[in-house]
Amino acid sequence: IHIFVAKIFISFSFISKNSYGSQLGCTFFSLQPVRDTREKQVQLWKELILDYCKTQKIFVIGLEEEFPLFSNPAIERSLTHEAREAFLAALVSEGRAEWLDKGHRKCLILWHRIQDWADIILNFVKDYGLENSVTTVEEIRSGPESRGTDLQGVDRIILMRALKLLEHKGKLAIFKGTSADDEGIKFSS
Amino acid sequence: MRRRPGIGGLQTAAAARDQYRLLGENVAKIRTDLMKEQLATFRSQLEDFARKHKNDIRKNPAFRSQFHEMCAKVGVDPLASNKGFWAELLGIGDFYYEIGVQIVEICLATRAQNGGLINLQELCSLLRQKRKGSREAVSEDDCLRAISKLKVLGSGFEVISVGKKKLVRSVPTELNKDHNEIIEVAQAQGFVTVDELERRLSWTSGRAIDALETLLKEGFAMIDDGHRDGRRRYWFPCVSSISSLGGSDA
């Protein structure tokens, strides 16, 4: 319940413009020095980041860019770069995120793990009877069937990883398409 | 005639003392008997009262509180045991047991946030939310009674008064005078700064920082370095109220 209560806290202060009751939210934006408190803070932010990215369909966070979750104008607080990096690094350790560059400026967020994305694709194939058929990577993420599903607009890097995982398991084959940047997919039966 | 303290005189005096003593004891006994009789009358009247107003006692926290006061005055503790006349008549032994368990649950659940120190008002509010749909309303007085029962179980619960508020401590860590003073200062805005403590309490910064470090370490306070004046603020969840996020601007 404490995460739940704290989440209400933070989400309330994000949703609402009034700062009453969100004063305590100020502390969530400062890296806590006491170890036990820090652990809870990190846990809270990890869950928040995953939830937020999932609902907003965000796949990449740029640490040097503005990111609404990391600021709360109502209480005039923002996460420092150090704090952002600390929380994202915690997600990376847990396998729920990956750094896209050595400088840790961009972070890929796996609010579904790659394995989960692979399962989603398999269900997609089953639901639409796509066994043995051919399609393109772009179709999977923006075709009419993708509408309303998690696959719609999914990040290409993530999609390719999931597809490669499935290829490795023999569920499909990836081949070069007619245009330079569009691979084709043939699903197994 | 001058009285001579002869043996006879002493014996007379002793006999007289004895008689006075016996008389005194008799008077005391009569008084005690009278009192016992009065108390017995009170008690049976109280029992009649309880029988007649059973529902009110169960449903109305203010009424219940006054009932407890009456009981206390005649030396009756309806909560003394889960069995027996009172418990059976009113069934309120279970009521306080139930609240006690729920209070422990709430304190455990919020410990990560407040270190084990929660203000009574907030505890009560969370308790009401937890019990939504239950027929029996709970008051702060009920919470205090339930907590006093918990104390008897040795569960480390303590109610402390700091400034205008009552705080419920559910961890063994005790607060010293300096800590209490800091929390009292924090009640104004929910936080304190080292400067403020130095100013208001005429402390050295060393004394302030030491006390604050302990409060931080125990999880009763958290830091906030984000204010534009650059001064570190120490926030105290136990003086704020999470559950009072009433109005929806969402």
UniProtKB/TrEMBL annotation, chain A:
Keywords attached to this entry: Protein transport, Transport
What InterPro entries does the entry give?
ESCRT-II_cplx_Vps25-sub, ESCRT-II_cplx_Vps25-sub_N, WH-like_DNA-bd_sf, WH_DNA-bd_sf
MF-aspect GO terms:
protein homodimerization activity; structural molecule activity
- Under which name does UniProt file this protein? ESCRT-II complex subunit VPS25
Which domain of life does the protein's organism represent? Eukaryota
Name its species: Corymbia citriodora subsp. variegata
The family classification in the record reads: Belongs to the VPS25 family.
Identify the GO cellular component terms for this protein. Answer: ESCRT II complex
Pfam families, sorted: ESCRT-II
GO BP: macroautophagy; protein transport to vacuole involved in ubiquitin-dependent protein catabolic process via the multivesicular body sorting pathway
Keyword Protein transport applies: yes
